Every structure is written in structure tokens, then in C-alpha cells.
Amino acid sequence: MFSEGNLAVTCWLWRSMSKLFLLLSLLLSHAAHLEGKKDNQFIWKTGPWGRCTGDCGPGGVQSRALWCFHLEGWTSHLSNCVENTRPPKERSCFRVCDWHSDVFQWEVSDWHQCVLVPASPGQAQPRTAECVTAQHGLQHRTVRCVQRLNRTRVVNEICEHFAPQPPAEQACLIPCPRDCVVSEFSQWSECSKGCEKQLQHRTRAAIAPPLYGGSPCPNLTESRACDTPISCPLGEEEYTFSFKAGPWSKCRLPHLKEINLSGRTVLDFSYDSKERVTFRHQSYKPHHLSKPWDLEIGYQTRQVWCTRSDGKNASLSLCMQDSFPLTVQSCIMPKDCETSEWSSWSPCSKTCRSGSLSPGFRSRSRNVKHVAIGGGKECPELLEKEACIVEDLLQPCPRYSWRTSEWKECQVSLLLEQQDPHWHVTGPVCGGGIQTRDVYCAQSTPASTAQKAKEVSRPVKKTLCLGRAPSASQLCNIPCSTDCIVSSWSAWGLCIHENCRDPQGRKGFRLRRRHVLMESTGPAGHCPHLVESVPCEDPMCYRWLASEGICIPDHGKCGLGHRILKAICQNDRGEDVSGSLCPASPPPERMPCEIPCRMDCVLSEWTEWSSCSQSCSNKNSDGKQTRSRTILALAGEGGKLCPPSQALQEYRSCNDHSCMQLYWETLPWGPCSEDTLVTALNATIGWTGEATCGVGIQTRRVFCVKSHVGQVMTKRCPDSTRPETVRPCLLPCKKDCIVTAFSEWTPCPRSCQPGNATVKQSRYRIIIQEAANGGQECPDTLFEERECEDISLCPIYRWKPQKWSPCILVPEPVRQGIMGSSEGCGKGVQTRVVSCVSDDNQSAEMIECLKQTNGMPPLVQECTVPCRDDCTFTVWSKFTPCSTNCETTRSRRRQLTGKSRKKEKCQDSDLYPLIETELCPCDVFISQPYGNWSDCILPEGRRESQRGYRVQGDSKECGKGMRFRAIACSDKNGRPVNPSYCSSSGYIQEECVIPCPFDCKLSDWSSWGSCSSSCGIGVRIRSKWLKEKPYNGGRPCPRLDLKNQVHEAVPCYSECNQYSWIVEHWSPCKIHNELRSLRCGGGMQSRKIRCVNAADSEGEAVDNSLCSQDEIPPETQSCSLLCPSECVMSEWGPWSKCPQSCDPHSMQRRTRHLLRPSLNSRTCAEDSQVRPCLLNENCFQFQYNLTDWSTCQLSENATCGRGVRTRLLSCVRSDGKSVSVDQCEQRNLEKPQRMSIHCLVECVVNCQLSGWTAWTECSKTCGHGGRMSRTRFIIMPTQGEGRPCPTELTQQKTCPVTPCYSWVLGNWSACKLEGGDCGEGVQIRSLSCVVHNGSVSHSAVSVDDALCGEMPFQDSILKQPCSVPCPGDCHLMEWSEWSTCELTCVNGRSFETMGRQSRSRTFIVQSFENQDSCPQQVLETRPCAGGKCYHYTWKASLWNNNERTVWCQRSDGINVTGGCSPQARPAAVRQCNPACKKPFSYCTQGGVCGCEKGYTEIMRSNGFLDYCMKVPGSEDKKADVKNLAGKNRPVNSKIHDIFKGWSLQPLDPDGRVKIWVYGVSGGGFLIMIFLVFTSYLLCKKPKPHQSTPPQQKPLTLAYDGDLDM
To answer: What are the distances in angstroms from CA 180 to CA 1, 1382, 1391?
Structure first.
């Protein structure tokens, strides 16, 4: 048993488990519920489509985002949505690119008709009666995006990429409805004087049709009975009688019963019998494949009855005449046009999938077997087209793009020929030019296959490529070659061995050098040699350089002593080296010297050696150097004497080498060739960016040259300075010629060709890349031509008519049964067979002849079998021959035959002429000039120029030409004939001249002037001057100065040491003292100076002006010769250098030393001096000075293209003085890097034009006004100030005037009734061939029908039914005249550009009994140009007894019915309501009751007349009294009582109070106020010191009416 505790735990566990189980059950059921609802609770949602990406055109792709959404709005995993309903995430699209703007465009139609805006719900439609001027409307038009090429429609999104969509609807105004407008009635027709009942009528015409929902036209006819004074007695009315013919029945065949085969006649006119007999003509067999086509001849009948003039029928006997009207006649049974079955559909024109939405087309055709005859149904359409779409089954269409060849060689000569037509090649040319390339269209290949395909795409027709073609020409540049610019030569160096590392022999060389200031440019740029040498002896590569110290006495303070020498070993470049390299032992360390004692003569130190007098030695002189020293102090007694003057100077020779310099000369580098010794490298990219294929070598020749002699042995020149003869180079890759594949053969014509013309087909290929560097050469054949094979000649088809059949009449039984006559005569029908045959008389389908001719010979014609009473004649004879005289005539004859010769009516020559006469044809022709002269046409130039490029100079653009004027040729009778009868060409020709343009001509550049500065930077100038001014559109001149010159200035630089002053030694000091005993003291000394050119080897003096005048050395100076007892000091040494900053706190020092002490104890002068470093006094700073960039300088051979801009560098001292560049270089100043840059001079290019195209066909096939034209195109537009392109790129000339032959329809004949007097008949007209010249004013002249070709086969245009009204019939009148052209206008502004005209036909009623059978009146409207705006207004006459006439009038004065607004019509009758019944009252013109004269109106409060009151005194005199009171205004009758005796009336006739009444009332009111105020002032006690109130004046003024108050 369980304990209590266990039982409690068990119960708790059970309750917990049950709750858990319940929770699990709920979760499972909920999950099942969710699973069941899953399909319904999750849906797909998509984002908007993104941008179209990918290839241009139909190959684009669009994508969008995709989500799975729960119905409650939260997103879920995509797997929760049903996969089958998943929307697409991507789709193909048409990606629009910029170049598509040349392919697609918006196309808009014209605006459609304006329609009324439909009323919105809840809004009432406006009524027409409420319209005042116009109503609001909408008009629409079609807007679509189309391809420019074939106008096919594409999706609008393509065009929206470039331009917004034009609006497809706009608001517009519709004029108010306007009724039909008709004219006034005509006068009534006259009545005859008979006694019978008659009608008279009057008519009017329609002027304008009803518009915009207006009322239709009213009746245009009015009839009324004539007033007859007396009526006719019964039975004695006068009537006329007429045969009235009914319409002809349809053509039918006779019944079998109508013909008795044994010869007896049986008449049966029943229509129910279906047995027919066919009168067959011979079968019509145009082709062996066609069935026989029979022309069946039947008959047709009509009724004839007698009608009376009042419209009633009468007995036939009353109408009997000599002959009874024809009631039966032969006819051709109608045959409809017969065609073959439709051919099968042609293949769809769209053979590939292009991605555009335009469909293809396919067609089928059928042929005419037999044309319609006898009024049968005309031929239907023979060609049928329909759209076809088979996009899914097609391959994608090939896409085409423009391709180009590489640019051809740059042609500078083309530009040079433009500037000077007489220019010819004299040497290498450079600078700007023109280069061309071939532009062709080829099929685009995908990028993946393009790399694999080795063959270049073949060219196709250029029309397949869309967009603008790339340019076929461009400006180019051939680099100009410039030589190096080098510095001047350095001084000659020391004599050294050729190779200091291996010194050999006693022969050496002295060298001098120069360096490159500016490198050469271009392929032919050349640098001169930079090193020159001369042979010398005893060369030394290393030598000792000793420096001396001061003299130190050996004993005491004066006398003999020694100097300490310091020796340094230096190489040939002045560099310190080890002393072991110097060949000899070093110089001694001591050198003897002497210090003068107190009484000794004192001499100065030796000066430096002067510069060498010559740079080299020649036969006449050697170079020399000198140095000197001077006597500073004389010797005293017992002292050492001074040396003689000769001992004060020393000489030595210098530059003793020959003036014949040696140098190495080089030839240009040869081409880069393969080197078998150098390992070939892989292809790489060279310095110029072009692909290279390995490393090669270049070689050049080097030889030794002796100046002024020429080439000498190589060993004469130092080998150490020998230039290199071999250098590595990058081998350019071989370039094979690349050509396109041949294009497809031009198609041979599929259709046959006329005549024996040979048709050729051709193909071509284009050079894409020329061969270079030894590559495979291009093929010779680029164009191939061959004759087309299997070209069929077009057969010529013609109609072949047979003879006419005999005249077939109505069958005798039928004729006898209907007419009672058995004579076989009268009108009949005859037929013939017309077949189509080829040139070789083979039968052909009828369609072949119909294609080549406009019509067909007639198959049927009317004929006549003469009756016994008819006149018969022989056939016309041939015309008599003509003589040569143009004035002669020719004639032909016929004669009467049989009994006709005796009949009197046949003798009438007017009715039956027996002779016909006409003018003979004349061969005299008259020519007359027509039209204007053509443009001046120059003879054709060369078709192709060098390298296939045509420029303006290739064809003549000016000079002598011909101009043409067409002629019109006519015969003597004025009929146009072919112009070849008057002139072989059809033109009058005369010479003409197109003036040639002349460009501005300037002289050549002058030579450069000298530099404006002899030292440092200056300017050089050169100039051109005007030779000829431009005219006739030539190239204009540049801007000229007042002297008609143009200048060019460039900076220049002159070396400051190019010219220098050379000074000789000072002469001995010349003492001033006149006493001979004294030889010491102050004096003067002089020296010679000269200016020399540093480049001159001889050192000859030049003009002193060439040297700087600021630096001219002094020629004289003061000096002093010290006496024996005086202290002698040495010359001052040089000042120490200042720092570059020129700091004024730093000092400059110089020293000197004691040479001889004085005899007494006086101290000597100072031995040192100091001074501060002051800027621009004793201290200078230096800086580089740069000029501005020069203008763009071209080579002498170039006129444009790439050039060089230069700037110059100089050194300038801080005080502004130009000094040698060495001064800046010594201080290591920062030097600018670029002294020259490339620049471009724009090429002046004249307009480049293509050649003229061939003349177009004449714009008209015949007659006046035809024009031919030819055009040319701009290949390259004008560049710079070149000759502009001509405005006229098209030339025109009038065509020769050829005659126009055409079929013209004649006028309709009178209505033929075949014996009847009135009723139904037939009108006929004929076609005639006429000739005219195509102008409106020229009248057509009839000519032979053969000149117009076959007659068009259309019976319907040559015959039509007509009717002649019988007396008493109701019938239509003739058409009225066309009304004037009228525009639809609102407020005087037109709504349209085209107006309209109207005309009408109305009917005439002759008898009231027949008016029910009257036809409807007819209105016709046609558009017209040049219309006017008319407005319609109501007009009214004056009132007469409360009536007047009201009518509508147009603005041109015509009275009309309609056109005026009915709402605005004035009243025609005037009535008072209520009627005027009071005594002495009457109805006034205003429509209200008034009183007669002498009475005044007393009105009620409601505005109506109460009674008429007599005015006092009106019996005796006529007072000026108003009779009518206010209209519709209540007035108190007491006012009338007050003023009834006055002549003034306070009220207007309409009841309003007059203005003066208000004025009097206001004035009275002011007077009352004034009186009250005055009384107040008078009665009031006056206050002291109070003035009069100031308000009085304004009151008085106000009373006086002052407006300023």
C-alpha cells in the first residue's frame, strides 16, 4: 500500500505529465495547421527591374530582387514559397548605348482632328446653345520610337534614353457649331403666256457646308404656281409631247426559243427560261496553257413611251416621228477580270534574329489571265504582302561595325602644294602633313572568337554599318631634323701622351674640347666633332707645380736670402696625384732670392705671363708671351743699382703647334641588323614604345680628318678620342602585309537585262597593314572583276491584234420580234483577238505585255451596217505626196457608192465630206532657250591622286569652264519635239570663268639680325613683308604692322668673354719734376690696350666698340718712383673673398709687406687694410636669369607641325650687370633643367573636298522644270585660316526639254438618246494623244496616237449614263460655281492652313404632280489654299410700325442665310406687354408704353404706366417736355405735381434723378450749416485775445465747391 507521502508525489507527477502531454498535443496540432496553411500563407514578391547591363543592343540582361513574403508581412526563406509559381529573376533586354542616338528617333504623326472633351461624371455636357466662340477639345497624335533606317517600331524605352517622349495629346479649341451657309435666292423664273398651269421657281447656292455639328442646308429651291389671268377651256390646253427613253437593260443572251433553227421565228420574252444560245466568236487563246476565252455577244433592250409636258403619259401615236427610237442593240456580255491562283508565299524577308521588334515581310502574287470586258469587275490586287515573325527559329543576325586600316605615310607635300601650287620636291620635307586610312564596314566578331580567328573580316556594304564612320584623314607630323648646338672651343691643353697609362715615345697631342649645348633632333640631325688635337713633342702626363714662398734673408735683414718652394704633382686635368707619378725628381725646396738693403734699388715682382698672342703657329709668326716688373725705388749712394730697362721684361714662345687640327669625323649610323654574336633576346618593347624583336647592332664609319686638308691616315688622330663604330640596337619586328579577305562578289542581277549590255561583278580587298622591316610584301591584286554568267536578256513582248470580225447585229428573230423590222442594218458590235507574243512570235502570258505597256488594244468596238437609206462611201484613198515646201498640204478622197450617189442628203459636203486636207509634216524646227544658265561647270580633274587620296588640288576648282542652258525645240506648228532635232546635246553652251582665289603672299623670312646685346641676353629679329594681298576668298594675311610687315623675335645670348680687352705692360714711370737732378717722385705711366676676338687664332685687334665699354681698362695711371731714403712697400695683395651672403658684419682684408726700410726712424705705411663686405660695392651676388619661352620655332623646311620653344640662361650680378655664366657655375647655383620644350604650330589646311558625283537622273521624265544635280562632300574641314569650304556643294543644270506625250480624256459628249427626246442615255468621251511641255501655261496639241503607246483599257472612264429631263419632270440643275475659299476662324484667327470651297446642285420642280419624285439636292466640298477669314453679323432695317427686316451678312458684303449666331438674332417685331390700353398711350420703340405729345407719363411703383396726364400750356405752345418717364423704376407721382408747371424735369426719361438735383440739395444743406454756425458765433460772448475761427474759410471753400477739401 502507498503511504500518504508517496501518494502525494504520484498525484503531482500525474498532473505534471498530463499538462506536458497537453502542451505537446497543442504544438503538434499547430505545426500540422501551419503545414496545411503553408501554400496559402507565403507569396512571392519582386523588386523593380534593374538597369540593363551587358552588350549594346539586344544582348543586355536585367535582373531584380526576389523575396518570399508571409501574408502577415514578414519575409521568410525562399523554400517556403511554391517553386512552380516563382517569377523570373532575369530577363533579356535592349541595352541602349550612346551611338544608338544615330540609329533610333522619335517619330510623331500630325495632330488628329480636335474632338470635344467628354464630360466627367456628375458634370453636365455643355449645350451647343451656350457656345460663344469656341469649345474646349483634345487632339491626339501617334508617338513611337522607330529605327531611322527602315522606320520600323521599337520599344519606347530606347528613345527615352536620349530624349523625353513628345506629348501625345494637347488641348485645342473647337469652333462653335456653324450652320450651312447659303446665298440669297435668285429672281423668280418667268412664266410663259399660255393658259395652262405653270410653276415658277427660284434657287440659291450653298456657300459653306455645316461645320462642327451645325444644321444642314435648307432647301435650295422654292416653287410657286404662276398667276394665269384666265384658265384654259376644258380640252383646249396646249401640251407638247416627247419620246422618253428608259435605261438600257443588262446585256443578255437570247433564249433558244427565240430562234427557230429551220428559219422560223418564235418570240419569247419570258425571263424564267434558262436555256440560252451563245453567239460565239472565235475562241480567244492567248497561251497554250489557258482555256479558250469566248467573247459572247448578246443584246439589251429599253422601254420607250410618250410623255406630255405636264408630266403625264400619252399615247405613242402622239409622239410619232420619222423614225422610232432604238429599243434593242447588240452588246458584249460582261466578263470579269480573270486571274491565276495565288503563288506560294515567298520566304520571310527577315532571315535572322535581330532583337528589334520589327517583323519581316513575305509576299505572293498572281497573274492576269484575261482583262475585264463589257463592264465586268476590274482586276483585283495582284500582289499581297503580310508580316511574318519567326524569331525563335532564326540564328542571331550578324552585327557590323566600322573598321579601319592603319594610317598611311604622312604626306607633307599635300599641305605645301596648297600654299604654293608650283611647289616641287627639292629635298627632305618635314613638319605638318595629312595622312589617310581606309574605312570599311565588316562583320563584328565576338571577343572569344576574334583572338582565334587569324583572318581579318571581309569588307561588306557600308550601308550595313550604323552610326558615323570614323575619319579617313587626319593631320600628322614628320619630325624635323635639327643639328646640335655646341659651345665654343676651350683653350688648348698641355702636351700629353695619347695614353697616360702606357706612355710611349716622345710624340704626344694637345687637345681642346667643346661640349653640346643642345642635342640634335630628328633622324637626320647631326652633331659636329667635339674634340680637336694637334701633335706635339715631349709629352708629359704628370708634372710638378711649384709655389713660391716669401724671401727670407740668410744674414741680417737684407741681402741674399732664399725662398721655400712647395711642389705638387698634378695630372693633365689639374688634379693632385702622387709625386711618384711625376717622371723627374721634384724641384729643389729652396730657391735663392735677394732682399734689397736700405740704399738698394727696389724692383717689383714679376707679373703673370700674358695670354698667348696666337692660338697656333704658322709660317709667318709664332705665339709669344711676356711678363715684366717695374722699378719701385731708386738706389741711393752705395746701394745696388737698378737693372737696365731690357732686364725688366721677359719673353717666351707659346702655342708653337701647327694650325692644322686633327679630328675624328663620323658617318650616320647604319640600319639595325642582326648580330650572330649577340644572343637574341625575346621580343620586348623598345624605347619608342614599339614592339621589338631582339637586339641587333648598328655600325658606322669613322675616319681622321685634317682641317683644310681632308681625310688623312687614321693613326694621325689620337685613338683615345676615337668615337665608337658599333653599338647595340633593338631590332624592329618584321611586319607582314595584312589584307582583308576579298569582299563578296557584287550580286549579278536576278532579273533579265535589256539589250546586249554585259554586266560585270567585282570584289575587292583592303590593305590593313603595309609590309615593313623585311616582312611579306602585299599582293598586287586588290580588285577583281568578271562578267556575270547566265544573265538572261529580257524578252520584248508586244500585242498582236487579229483582224476585226464582221459587224454583228442583234439576231434577226429578236430584232423582228421587238422592232417589227427585218432589215439587217444599223449599229452592231465587232470583236477581234489580241494575243501577247514575244519577239520571236512565241505566245506569252497576257501579264507580260501588260507589264511592258500601259494598256491593251481594244477587243471590241462599235460598228455600223448601212441601211438602205444610209449614205455609203468608198474607203479613203492614201494621202497625196508632199513637196519639200513647208507651206504645202496633202489630201485624200472618197466617193459615194451605189444608190447613195443619187440621194440628195448624201450630196451635202458639209455632212459627208469627200475630201480631207491637212498640212504636210515640216522638218523646220525652232529652238528657244529655256530656264536659267547652269552653274559654271569645270572640266573633270584626275580621279585619283597619290596614295588614293583626293584633295582639292586634284581637280580644278577655278578657271575656265562651261555653262549650259537648256533649249526647248518645237516644230513649225509650235508642237514640242525632241531637242535632238535642234541641237545634238539639247543645250546652248558658253564659256565661263570661276575666279581663282589668291592667298595672301608674304616674302620669305629675312636672315636673323644680330643680337641686340653684345654680352648676355638680347633679342634677334627677322621679318617678312607683304607681297600680294588676298582676294576671291584666298587665305587671309596675318596681322601686319604699319609697314605691312610681320616680325618674329627670339632671345639670343652672347658670350660675355667673346670679345675681351688685351692690355700690354705699363711703361716705366715718367717723373713730372722738371728738375733733372731729381729722378724720383710722382709721375705717369701708360700702356697699350686692344679689343680682340677670343675665337681668332691670330689675336688680331678688332673694333673697340665690340668690347664692353664699361670694362675698358685705363690706358694711363699715376705712379711714383720712391727716393732712396724712403720706405718701400710691396704692391697690395688681392682682397680676401667675402661670403656669398655679403654679410656687412664680415670684413675683407688685403696685405703687403716691407721691401726696403727707410733711412730714418719713421715708420712705414700700413701693411694691411680691412673693409666691410657691402652688397653691390665690393661684394656681389649672382643668379641665373631665364628669358621667357620663345615663339614656336619650326625647321626651315616645315610650315607647321611640331617645333621647339627655347629660352636662354644668363648670369646676372646683383647690380644688374650681365656677367659670364662661369660666375654662376663657380658658385654651384641651381641650374634650370629644361631650356627647350616641344610645341605645335597649327597647320593651316584648306578645305578638302571629294570629287563630284555623277549627274543624277533628271527630276522629270519630260517637259519643263526638270533638273539634274551632282554633289561633293567635305573630306576634311578647314583648319586654322585655310580656305573655307564652299557653301555650294551641289551643282545643278536644267535638263533638255523633251516633249511629254500623254493620253488626255476629252469632254463628255451630249447625252445620246438614240432617237429619244428625253430620258436615260449615254455620254461618251474619247482618249486622244497630246503633246505638251509639262508647264501649266502650255496648251496641249493633238498628235498621232502612236506616240503615246497603247491606250489604257478602261471602258468605265469613256462611257457613263446620263439623262435629259422631259418637260414636266423634276430634275437636278447644273452645279453652281465653287464658292470663295474660306477658313474656319475664331476672333479673326485661323484654325487651319487649308480652307474649303463648296458648290451645290438643286432640283427644279416643273409640275406639282411630280414633286414627290424629285432627287435630293447635292452639296460638294473640297479643300483649297489661300483662304480668308470671314465673319457673319446680323443686319437690321429701321423700325416701321414696330416691324423691321433682319438678315445675316458676311464680312465681304454678301447677304446669306446661316452663319450668324441664332442666339444673337435681333427682334424683327416689337410688342409691348401688357398692351397699351390707357388713353393717349402707345407702344414706344423701347417696348414700353408711353404717352402721346402733350401728355406726361405717371408711372406705378411696378414700373408700368398708370395714366397719361396733360401738360399745362401744351395746347398753345409746343413746350420742350419729355414724354416718357423712367423705365421700370417706381417714382412718387407727387414729385410730378410739384414740378408739373416747370419746364425743368428733375428725372431722366429712364426714371433716374438728374445730377443737378443732387448739387442743389447739397448746396442748400451747406448754407443751412453756415447760417446756424454764424448765429452761434454772433450770440456767444467773445473771449479776450481770441481770433476768428479758422474753419470759416474751409466751409466757404467747400461751399464754393473746392475739390481740395
So the answer is: 123, 13, 18
